[in-house]
Design brief:
Length: 772
């Protein structure tokens, strides 16, 4: 009876603690068999170990006996290569990944090794594996770190980052396991869609994706579609408009919506702008271009903040990736917004671009027949992982119990009261010698806090988008005795903090003092991100503590729940102990989570049709790229024979191929621009009580059907006009010119119906103006 009660209690705890979790009992039962193989494998030489791993390649699939063999071989390979014997929980993680789940493993529990053993397992089944991370640094670090393990298992490994040439990328993708950031892998895929020779493709067909920091990649990054753009000409910003908009004031001349995604002129603002621009009527047909310039300048002025959304460094505007806290390399805003920000900051304008192609993270991951992932906070997004990716969560228990002390939030009436309390908290904890990690929301906040600490004679190290190249070194020392580290977006850093610093010399001393103390300067828009910051303390059973400071005037609250209940009072220091204050902040966070989820859903609703159209067109493009279909399509057209006689059959086929691929790519780019315009105005359809999404489909589908016939028609016209000289064929002279450079756009989607609400506000404002 006691045993039965114990089993029932264990199952009940699993039900309570693991919502949506996969049952792991079948894998737990294999652990004794794995351990039993250790003495036998320890007796093998390195060559014999590699040979034994190679025998798994002959197996049709990984059944229980093969899983036992793989995990035992992986444990032995890690022991020899890294001097690390994989814990049982790491092997559970490996088996969870091999069964196609997202495994939740706490920070410091060894996800990297678990992921490497799973990748090796897939590779030994003959499958090509991409281990997808949130940034280049982690991809390279993990690939290099795990390489000795892969070598002992006879599996080849490579990694891609922004510094590699096309040939180096191809070599990395030719490995059985390739590590890369989601953006890098996504953009390589988009670049492959633009090649005109089959041999220029760098990525083989995708087979397996193992996603590190899966919630960051699949949820946070999924809100920002990957967009490839090509240069057209130098952008021209309307500096006159920028100077006018710079003088406008919130509440008087313009308003913004509560989530900070839209801004619009008030009646007074429109009058001021019209007068400053020489009496133009912004809302007349002749003033439409000026109105567009005003709107984009207002967006840059009102909704984008220096040192929060972007940096100005070396005379250039550099975007900050909000979910990673890093500079977003080679990323820009579209549709004149980049030029507007450059005009706002009075820096030289960069090239204007046109969108060549784009893909959402959902669509990128959907290309892989098999997907698995790992993260420290999967349960919080279990429903989204199931809804958007058909992935289930498997919660892996920690190797050692978590003893971190999570303190109650400290809430203040204003940000200034909160900041003083944070400095006081840091001083008191620092005097004990405990290391402190402070997680801030953005660059500006991190630098303001660092300035306050310096004045209080509390020197700190700052990690933000300005110095993210030194990230690894800074984080490595964050657990050192007496260290104070201030970091933006620590949740996206993906690196462990070891007590005692990189060498662990002071580990016991720091542990006796209570371990790492984590301070959050504000609650994040997601409780999951709060949990990730807390999780930097207390790794692998270490002591530690975490506390969040918050204010009723934090952006989270003012943007999502601005109506604070009456009767919440603060003491003389500005601190609020009324439980209603915490309930209100929790409510604001839930609202923010709901908005983000709706943005994610909305992006997916509209892009599913686009992805279907893209797949259909890509099949046609692949046929043109890899066969003689282009030459066959144009063989009966004017001048085809003369082409062939002058340059030879093979070159003529390539010319036809390049002409048709050019027009296909150009028409797809035009189609995307058309759909963007439709999307931006589609909410007007709701005025006629039509469903915006249905209307989007009704417009987009017949427009897409025009593309393939038009490709052949335009290609025939180009072929008729092509110039054939003594040196061959000059396609550029016939208008077949490809972008001289490419970059990526950072595009945030608006929440569902936000565009409609903004339109209604502007229509009402316009009607009031005309009436008066």
């Amino acid at each position: 009876m006691p045993a039965l009660i114990s089993r029932m209690g264990k199952r009940l705890r699993k039900l309570i603690e693991r919502p949506g979790s996969v049952e792991l009992t079948k894998y737990e039962a294999l652990l004794p068999d794995i351990e039993a193989l250790e003495p036998e494998l320890e007796a093998l030489s390195d060559a014999e170990l590699t040979e034994r791993a190679g025998k798994l390649r002959l197996e049709a699939e990984l059944g229980d006996s093969q899983l036992v063999e793989l995990c035992a071989l992986g444990r032995e390979a890690a022991r020899r290569a890294l001097d690390e014997r994989a814990f049982d929980v790491q092997l559970l993680g490996t088996m969870g990944l091999l069964s196609g789940h997202v495994v939740q493993m706490q920070t410091g529990e060894g996800k990297t090794l678990a992921g490497a053993l799973a990748a090796a397992g897939y590779a030994l089944q003959g499958k090509r594996v991409h281990v997808i991370s949130v940034n280049d640094y982690l991809a390279r670090r993990d690939g290099e770190w795990m390489k000795p393990v892969y070598d002992l298992l006879g599996v080849t490994v490579g990694w891609v980052d922004g510094s590699l040439t096309r040939e180096e990328r191809r070599a990395a993708y030719d490995a059985e396991v390739t590590y890369g950031a989601v953006s890098e892998i996504g953009f390589d895929m988009l670049r492959d869609r633009l090649v005109t020779r089959a041999e220029d493709v760098v990525q083989p067909a995708p087979e397996v994706a193992i996603i590190d920091e899966a919630d960051s990649v699949l949820v946070d990054e999924a809100r920002v579609p990957l967009v490839m753009a090509g240069s057209v000409d130098q952008a021209v910003a309307d500096t006159e408009v920028a100077n006018v908009v710079r003088r406008l004031r919130l509440g008087l001349h313009y308003e913004t919506d509560t989530d900070g995604r839209n801004a619009w002129l008030t009646t007074a603002g429109a009058s001021v702008v019209e007068k400053a621009l020489g009496g133009v009527d912004l809302y007349s047909e002749s003033g439409s271009e000026r109105l567009a310039a005003v709107n984009v300048a207002l967006h840059a002025h009102a909704l984008l903040t220096r040192d929060v959304d972007y940096l100005v460094r070396d005379g250039k505007v550099e975007l900050i990736n909000a979910s990673r806290g890093r500079v977003a390399e080679l990323q820009r805003w579209p549709d004149g917004l980049q030029a507007a920000v450059e005009a706002k900051e009075q820096v030289a304008p960069t090239d204007r671009g046109e969108i060549l192609d784009s893909i959402t993270v959902q669509a990128l991951i959907a290309r892989y027949p098999q997907v698995a992932g790992m993260t420290g906070t999967a349960v919080a997004v279990a429903e989204q992982l199931r809804e958007f990716y058909q992935l289930e969560v498997a919660v892996i228990p920690p190797n050692k119990p978590n003893v971190r002390e999570d303190l109650d939030d400290r809430i203040f009436a204003s940000p200034s009261h909160k900041l003083r309390a944070i400095v006081k908290e840091i001083r008191e904890v620092h005097e004990t010698g405990r290391p402190i990690l402070v997680g801030t929301q953005d660059v500006a906040e991190s630098e303001e806090l660092a300035e306050k600490l310096a004045k209080a004679d509390l020197p700190c190290v700052v990690l933000n988008a300005r110095n993210d190249a030194e990230e690894a070194a800074i984080i490595a020392e964050a657990g050192k005795f007496g260290a104070i580290t201030v970091s933006t977006q620590m949740a996206g850093r993906g690196t462990d903090i070891r007590l005692g610093g990189a060498d662990g010399k002071d580990r016991e001393r720091v542990a006796e003092l209570g371990g790492l103390h984590v301070i959050g300067t504000a609650r994040y828009p997601s409780s999951r991100l709060d949990g990730q910051l807390r999780g930097r303390s207390g790794r692998q059973g270490d002591p530690g503590s975490a506390v969040f400071f918050a204010s009723l005037n934090d952006e989270l609250v003012t943007s999502n729940a601005p109506d604070v209940p009456d009767g919440i009072d603060a003491d003389d220091s500005g601190e609020i102990t009324d439980p209603a204050a915490k309930r209100h902040i929790d409510h604001a966070q839930r609202v923010a989570e709901g908005v983000d989820l709706e943005i994610h859903r909305n992006t997916w609703r509209y892009t599913r049709l686009i992805e279907h159209q893209r797949r259909e067109l890509l099949e046609y493009r692949d046929e043109l790229l890899r066969t003689d279909a282009a030459a066959e399509a144009l063989s009966g057209e004017k001048r085809y024979d003369e082409l062939t006689e002058k340059v030879g059959e093979e070159k003529a086929k390539q010319v036809c191929r390049e002409i048709m691929l050019y027009h296909l790519d150009q028409m797809w780019s035009d189609h995307l621009a058309f759909l963007t315009d439709v999307r931006e105005s589609i909410h007007l359809r709701a005025l006629a009580r039509e469903t915006p999404l249905d209307e989007f489909h009704r417009i987009a589908i017949p427009e897409f059907r025009k593309i393939v016939p038009a490709i052949k028609e335009r290609s025939a016209e180009t072929l008729a006009d092509v110039e054939i000289g003594d040196d061959g064929i000059d396609l550029a002279a016939s208008g077949v010119r490809r972008a001289s450079s490419t970059w990526t756009y950072l595009v945030h989607d608006a929440p569902f119906d936000a565009g409609f609400e903004e339109t209604l506000r502007q229509v009402r404002s316009l009607l009031r103006r005309k009436k008066n």
